[in-house]
Amino acid sequence: MRKLIYGMNLTLDGYIAAPGDDIGWSVPSDELFQFWSDRLQATDLSLYGRKLWQTMSSYWPTGDQQPGATPAEAEFARRWRDMSKVVFSSTIGEVDWNTRLVTGDAVAEIARLKAEDGGPMDIGGATLAAAAMRAGLIDEYVLATAPVLVGGGTPFFTALDDWVNLNLLETRTLPCGVILTRYETRR
Fold first, then answer.
1. Contact (Cβ atoms closer than 8 angstroms) between residue 125 and residue 49
2. pLDDT in tens, 51-87
3. What is the pTM of this model?
4. Which 3 state secondary structure label does DSSP give 140?
5. Torsion angles phi and psi, residue 96, rounded to 5
6. 163 CB contacts (<8 Å, ≥6 apart)?
7. Which residue, 2, 11, 137, 177, has most beta carbons within 10 Å?
8. Alpha helix (H) ranges present in 6-136?
9. Cα 87 from chain centroid?
């Protein structure tokens, strides 16, 4: 059985995007890029909701070719482009870059993928992750908490039907002030 990990950058007050889907508050450092790049390398499959997919696919396929791209950004772009991905959407017609499109029941497909043999899967996108959280499918949470308050927007965590008890696995502070924390779901 695969492990399902939900991780994203978020604000100290718990938002992955400020109102209007503004992510301008998130200015990643080389250390943060390296952290996420290392996570990509350790991931077998990434699962995306439509909005996050559109954000990622609008930049990272050529992120290593952008003027001023740092070595950490270039490495992240190459790993992202080459890894296997699944996008869950009923409104997108096609996807590229080692990606498969799923238009049906996301929770059922995530449960099916999780039951397969293989390495860890990452899930990204608030709406998709919320459905997986409510279904009890997420095994680990990875938070890269930025020292900024935005007061509203898209929350990292959704409303849940039941509590989810967690065990702290790791906490680390990056030189840029971002605090990395990892928690596993206590089952």
1. yes
2. 889 988 888 888 899 999 888 888 889 999 999 999 9
3. 0.93
4. strand
5. -130, -175
6. none
7. 11
8. 30-41, 50-57, 71-82, 106-115, 126-134
9. 12
